[in-house]
Q: What sequence folds into this?
């Protein structure tokens, strides 16, 4: 199995609680809080470990909050590669309104990075990740990170296969095809719609846009998630669709990270990209069956994998 190293430059200590009703003005008396390690790369590593694989997680941590997050990762048997963040690790905070079931999520921005600090991270990755390692950049990039940093990182990490699942300005820039490009670029349907200026109503339209991005040079493989309609992928061997395997959604939190975890673990085990797409979809389908941030449970993944259908487009 090829080694996997996930990268989380803007992690968060995710706090969640509930109260009878969320209304402005009065003090809201909340129930007991729970704390979970948050951040895309953190969740990808957690998903891989839960599915029986191995992954190392490079996480930028700062201050007491960072150390609390490190303790939570250790408790979940994550092989942590800690780098020093420029300042205190951020929090995110979610409150569920018991009367409506609605969840209110507050996400802080996190510390700002300089180019020299980011370059030190790349030096660490080069030293710690051998050739052939799958390096996963998942989640939002931190404040101060230049929009062209992903292509800069790809140029620095020659001989490694880079997987990118990010958002905002960094995703928009990557969609223009700056070189060198990552091995994989993944996005959700809403992000693809924004980039294309189209509704992408059918899987064929999503697949055609993924192929357009690939031909621009955005990545060697481009994946677009379509929610309950599964995902599509464009690669050198054609266009593919994979089903979502189930219609039941208890919580969509962590479904994308679980997809990336299942997909990357399959690649690390030597599976071809279409089969990796199928395993990623099964991991995502398993994740939506779990409440909160439990991600993909192995028993659900094993049951759903045979139901996940891969079809050429």
A:
């Amino acid at each position: 199995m090829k080694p996997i190293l996930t990268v989380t430059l803007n992690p968060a200590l995710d706090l969640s609680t509930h109260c009878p009703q969320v209304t402005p003005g009065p003090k809201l008396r909340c129930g007991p809080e729970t704390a979970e390690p948050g951040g895309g790369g953190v969740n990808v590593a957690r998903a891989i470990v839960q599915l029986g694989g191995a992954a190392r997680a490079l996480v930028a941590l700062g201050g007491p909050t960072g150390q609390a997050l490190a303790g939570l990762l250790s408790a979940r048997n994550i092989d942590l590669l800690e780098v020093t963040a420029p300042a205190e690790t951020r929090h995110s905070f979610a409150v569920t309104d018991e009367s409506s079931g609605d969840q209110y999520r507050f996400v802080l921005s996190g510390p700002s990075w300089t180019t020299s600090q980011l370059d030190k991270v790349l030096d660490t990755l080069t030293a710690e990740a051998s050739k052939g390692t799958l390096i996963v950049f998942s989640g939002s990039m931190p404040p101060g990170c230049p929009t062209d940093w992903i292509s800069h990182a790809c140029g620095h990490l020659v001989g490694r296969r880079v997987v990118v699942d990010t958002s905002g300005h960094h995703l928009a820039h990557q969609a223009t095809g700056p070189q060198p490009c990552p091995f994989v670029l993944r996005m959700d349907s809403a992000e693809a719609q924004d980039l294309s200026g189209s509704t992408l109503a059918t899987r064929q339209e999503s697949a055609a846009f993924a192929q357009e991005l690939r031909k621009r040079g955005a990545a060697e493989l481009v994946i677009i998630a379509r929610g309950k309609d599964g995902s599509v992928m464009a690669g050198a061997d054609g266009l593919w669709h994979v089903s979502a395997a189930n219609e039941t959604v208890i919580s969509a939190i962590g479904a994308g990270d679980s997809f990336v975890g299942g997909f990357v673990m399959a690649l690390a085990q030597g599976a071809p990209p279409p089969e990796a797409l199928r395993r990623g979809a099964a991991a995502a389908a398993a994740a939506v069956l779990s409440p909160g941030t439990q991600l993909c449970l192995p028993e659900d993944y094993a049951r759903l994998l045979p139901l996940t259908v891969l079809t050429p487009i």
